[in-house]
Fold each of these.
Amino acid sequence: MLRIGLRYSENGCCSRVLVAESFYRFLSTKTGRKLQDKVALITGAASGIGKATATEFINNGAKVILADIQQQIGQETAKELGPNATFIMCDVSNESDVSRAVDFAVSEHNQLDIMYNNAGIIGSNPPNIVDLDLALFDKDMSTNVRGAMAGIKHAALVMIPRGSGSILCTSSVSGVIGGMGTHAYSVSKFAVIGMVKSLASELCKFGIRINCISPFAIPTPIAMKHLSKIYAHLDAHKVEEIVNNLGVLKGAICEASDIANAALYLASDDAKYVSGHNLIVDGGFTSFKNLDFPAPDQVQ
């Protein structure tokens, strides 16, 4: 492809010239790579939404640290994503692991621009309040809520001195309306949204943006593992089909790449004035509820 640019001579006339390769790379950076030279740490990045987001961030010029409790899968993912991906073992329910991951990012790249607290568990609590296991409830909260808070805390420790940064968290449509998941899972995801809004009030004073993404149901590995226990008599393809048929937006399904695109938007300068926001990616599911009135000719 011919790369064309404009050069102005001393008399003010312009002529078409071949653009230098360095200028072309500069132009590509400004127009197509939204996270050029940024450093991002993503928890729960070995698979699913985290992996999709890491891929999108790297494609847009970022260096990404993949933090996950799944060591083998995480190392394989980092190798797959190439030299701009690095894996570190991290259990977000352990604050020292989160602190170590943040320190690792800074030691490797001398900065941390984006912190995405994506790690979470669905848990195995019964759906009924009378059967609630508070030990399992504590485990859900430890990962989904305490883990996200730890990520925000330790990212803030390095972002505040720089006066900039973008922090993201993954919630869920289960944190937007009730009845979408078990009580323990829903409560944890409601808490994440509240956490983001509360912390935005402080972090904005330091030029740090913090936002949240609430995805609709997606057949990620963690979701499929959970659902396969419920639908043990069905094969994986059928379970995936069930999940994909839950939405209301005709002709589309929610995929991990949709959440990755939302994360890219919120992490980049495209969202430079967006903070304290919960971006719901659900095809309109939580926006309305239809009243199923009978047709007039059916009512006597």
Note: The beta strands are 4-8, 14-18, 39-43, 63-68, 85-89, 114-117, 165-170, 208-215, 278-281.
Amino acid sequence: MASAAVPQGAFMVASPYGRHAIGLAVAAAVGGFLFGFDSSVINGAVDSIHSDFALNDVVTGFVVAIALLGCAVGAMIAGSLADRWGRLRVMFLGAVLFFASSIGAALCVTVWDLGLWRVVGGLGIGIASVIAPAYIAEIAPRQIRGGLASLQQLAITIGIFLALLSDTVLAGSAGGADEVLWWGMEAWRWMFLVGVVPATVYGILSFTVPESPRHLIARGRSDQAREILSRLVPEADLDRTMSDLRTAIEADRTSRSGSLRGKAFGFQPVVWIGIVLSVFQQFVGINVIFYYSTTLWQAVGFDESDALTTSVITSVTNVVVTIVAILLVDKVGRKPLLLVGSVLMTVSLATMALSFSFAEVDAAEVTLPGVWAPVAFIAANAFVVGFGASWGPLLWVLLGEIFPSRIRGKALGVAAAAQWLANFAVTMTFPALSNWSLPLTYGLYALFALLSFFFVMWKIPETKGVELEKTESLFTTLAGAR
């Protein structure tokens, strides 16, 4: 009788099957680490790049943002490649591209070859951003699928933190990012070169983890799939799991859901749900906090020398609240966390908009007087908490759950590409928007946070504890019904 009181998720984590699934999910989530590392490593190098290559602000901003275009292309091609080649071969391709980019960016001679290597790295990151959630969703037991899928975002936040930390350590060791550190290379070049370490780890892991059972069954390799599943589900459930997968895959092949194409502007409605979720995650402006945090922290009273340290602290906060989300997602559910996160982001962003309406501008420098400086600082960190505990990790959970298995790779690629393009749009437009009106800028992000609340209420069903094949039908039915 006592065992019945143990939550299924806790039992699954403690079982050999759950532990094996956790190990595979952690390995796949290293792709998320590359994602986060690449997103933030440029922060410590950008001023040196600007001065060493004598760039204007427009070109500097383009060098920062161009990697995001590579990410969008990488995400688009990753889905088709993953469905054709398998998840593991595409993981290895992403690792090779990021490895090459880290070396090329460190040894660049001109800004143009730096931009080229940034695009190459972006291709690798875009690939990793698709493969990790697809693979995790396909190997995770339903009782702990939400927590395991959230590891992608945790890995992203850890990548952001370690990128900022390594930038700080390298710049401090050299006496400045533009100073020579080792082997005649400036510290900012070593910031890029550090990326070869996680890229190598990711590449090695692609040879050590098993292929997705769903992909193997779809390719007629049922014996291999059964062997892998025998380590992920109890013996008593093995035959039923194999039968359910075969049935779902066959249904995908014979139904309209087996294709991305549909009447809703070229895509099936369920694909549009993934696209809109991805765009909302970026249009709330989260990357403004990580890409342009120096300006924000100076405006609320920090010295320039303290801005990077403050950004590191913010990234730690992001890691901590992501861990909270992992612990809650399979207990509380996806939808409640998303709704609470939307509310907290809306309130905090609106508070930032209000605070900056009292800003004072002197020689193009923005400062906040009196009480508005700490109010904006608290609101910015509350925004990070709201995002990190909800939309940050839960987007990857949902993107792994909503698409039919036959198109999961391709549909995830489209949704992830939309996310990267939205990221690019926010990154490129923030400087111009902020120069025009910071209250309007943060007010716009608050509006998108508010709209995300109503979208979740309208379009997102609860999938906590539901078998993966059934979550797909929930979203497909809901999308078709509306």
Note: Strands lie at 180-182, 185-186, 261-262, 266-267, 360-362, 365-367.
